[in-house]
Amino acid sequence: MKDNSRTIKAEFHCHTVCSPDSSNQLRPLIHTAHERGLSRLAITDHNKIGCALKAKEIDPELIVVGEEILTTGGELLAYYLSEEIPARLSPMETIERLKKQGAFIAVPHPFDIRRHGWKMDVLLEILPHVDALEVFNARCLRGGLNDRALAFAQEKGMRMQAGSDAHSLVELGLAMVELPAFDNPDELRAALEAGQISGRLLSPWDHLKASASIAFGKVISRK
């Protein structure tokens, strides 16, 4: 029996080669996650779950099958999926399809308009239907965007989470949440109530290293 009273470290926002802008191969990604002390790794590729499902087969306890879904209003993160959700549906249709799967739903980088953030009126409309807000994203170029997300989540009494948004191994674990162990959406909802967020922004130098890693990884993957 798994001990869900223990405290673990979780990464809630990570991409693989199934995302067109990521170089993360599955086995090195899983190995690096363990090296960095992660006990849960949510793979959230852009509008795809294929690599997340494959990673789950490799390491069932570590991997949470997720997806970062582009809607007509902004992006959503979802966890514990069995079926892929297509891009560019309306926010509420996307949410309805996710709820039919019993998924946990979060809003990533909500105010980063450069990366499919949300207009306030649309965000307020979906807020009662989502489980959490990402209040720290390591890829935000301006820390103030995370500060604004944190203040908004606190004002609205929302659960809060963080993620590195890793597109390369350099980034994995830059932002994480320490919380009680969880194995399903309901346990995750409860665990986040006691979650402690830590993280740092990806530095400009690391942005360059990450971009180089992604470019090199894509060249290698095409050979």
Structural class: alpha/beta
User: In the CATH hierarchy, what is the architecture at level 2?
Assistant: Alpha-Beta Barrel
Strand content: 15-25%
Terminal-residue CA separation: 44 Å
Describe the structure.
The chain is an alpha/beta fold. It has a single domain (7-222), classed as Alpha-Beta Barrel (TIM Barrel). It is 35% helix and 22% strand. It contains 7 helices and 9 strands, in the order βαβαββαβαβαββαβα. It has a 9-stranded mixed beta sheet with strand order 7-6-5-4-3-2-1-8-9. Strand 5 (104-107), helix 4 and strand 6 form a beta-alpha-beta unit. The longest helix has 19 residues, at 204-222. It is globular. The chain starts with 6 loop residues before the first strand and ends with a helix. Residues 10-73 form the Polymerase/histidinol phosphatase N-terminal domain.
Supply database-style keywords.
223 residues, alpha/beta, TIM Barrel, nine-stranded mixed β-sheet, 7 helices, 9 strands, globular, Pol/histidinol_Pase-like
Reconstruct the topology from this structure:
Layout: E1 7-14, H1 26-35, E2 40-43, H2 50-58, E3 63-70, E4 75-79, H3 91-100, E5 104-107, H4 120-126, E6 132-137, H5 143-156, E7 159-163, E8 175-180, H6 185-192, E9 196-199, H7 204-222
Parallel strand pairs: 1-2, 2-3, 5-6, 6-7
Antiparallel strand pairs: 1-8, 3-4, 4-5, 8-9
